[in-house]
Design goal:
heterodimer, A: 276 residues, alpha/beta, Rossmann fold, 6-stranded mixed β-sheet, 11 helices, B: 271 residues, mainly alpha, two-stranded antiparallel ribbon, 2 strands
Amino acid sequence: MKAVNFENVAFSYREEDEFSLKNVSFSVEEGEFVAVLGHNGSGKSTLARLTNGLLHLTGGKITVFGTDVSDEKNLFEIRKKVGIVFQNPDNQTVASIVEDDIAFGPENIGVAREEIARRVDWALDAVGMTEYKQRMVSSLSGGQKQRVAIAGVLALKPQIMILDESTAMLDPKGRREIMDVVKKLNREEGMTILLITHFMEEALAADRAIVMNRGEIVMRGTPEEIFERHEELETYNLALPRIGVLCEMLKKGGMPVRYVLTPEELAKEIAACASK
Amino acid sequence: MLKDIAFGQYYPVSSFLHRADPRMKLLSLVAFIVAIFLASNFYGIGLCILGFALALAASRVPVRKVFRSVKGILFLLVFTAIIQLFFYKGETVLFSWWKIVVTKEALFYTLFLILRLVLLVTVASLLTFTTTPVSLTDGLESLLYPLKLIRFPVHELALIMSIALRFIPTLIEETERIMNAQKARGAEFERGSLFSRAKAVIPVLIPLLISAFRRAEELGDAMDARCYAGSKVRTKYKKISFGWRDLVIFLVMAGLIAGVVLVKQLPGMVF
């Protein structure tokens, strides 16, 4: 079943403004991991806010598991299904203590007390933060705060999780922590993931990727397929991950390797080329 | 410098006071303040100090941390002390030089006043040290519940309070960052006249205010995304209930107030 479906979606912040999104159509299957890549101002964050009705679309149609997002009456149900983790960890924590913050979502939808306690423990375990249950959120590192934010969304038991540049404000270690959690959720819990990012290497974990530029979808395919078109990517101000750059240098130097994503795969490619 | 603002910081340990009902703690704080103002002699203030020492022991919060909250009113303390010391009318002159006269009564009264102020601040800080903002606001919401009958937005008020407490550390951090950025560009905050120092704060306040608005907007979105829809269907994660601990606190507080009233009769200096 289609978890999210966009049909010719158009959006502008104000009527007189240029469209932030033009004619955007794509869909995400249940259980799929899709990355949305794009430079600043490409419209990729607008996508996230439209999906759960934080913004109202100007044209087209968005459905979440078949339910129309543009109908105000459906919003509460849709927001239960679509969890969004935002960019700034400081601006999405409501309570001072980790467990209280995670409980905020389930409290809002009227979950019974014992069940909230179970969900808090489960969500903390899923992001590996169990030992921080009673801590002050302000005493945590950026990566830990963002993991708490993910747990806060998880506690609502959503079917889709959207990460709207959730790693952009973190250091490399924090980014890895978040990506590990996201991959695990997708593989083990079968959660549908929509990862919005401008870090190319994060897209490698996805099943499919979409590239956005100036409010339009300009590329679609598997991450591998997209990285192969690296020259086109550069015109959208997106730089290849380091391993991709290495592949390109090898190609230019006369070694016909395929585009691969991990150092191990690249080593195998090089070995294969050398033995020919 | 700003890190010294200890108010509103929860100290996460498990203790007798931590586990007490937030409503009882809130009411006790009010009762304690009443007791401090009822006390009219050193016996009364002594009883209050005893009560505070008991509470401190039952809280397991380090003494140093509690007294750090006094730093915030240090200026007020010194100012009050000086005024009272020189202007309180007494009879037994201890020290006099030119027009300055210090009497025994003034000395004792100043001491009394300082004890009173320090007690007020430390007792209040004990509440926030031992109570998480969420349970504090849950307690407040429960105590103010009758106001709902006159359609007073009790839940919203409690939520606003808890979010305000939650953002204190974030905004302090941000203020420090902005001040450092200004210092790096040659701004002076610690030198110059009072007027020029006050003026130097304006370029800190404006970016802070703008960022606070931006944060508020993002927080609103995040709350919407997490299905916040007011208090109608909302349930509570933490249950607040009145237990044996609260009965103990109630008895101690009743004892304290009765004691303070009784020792008023004792002979000695009265303020």
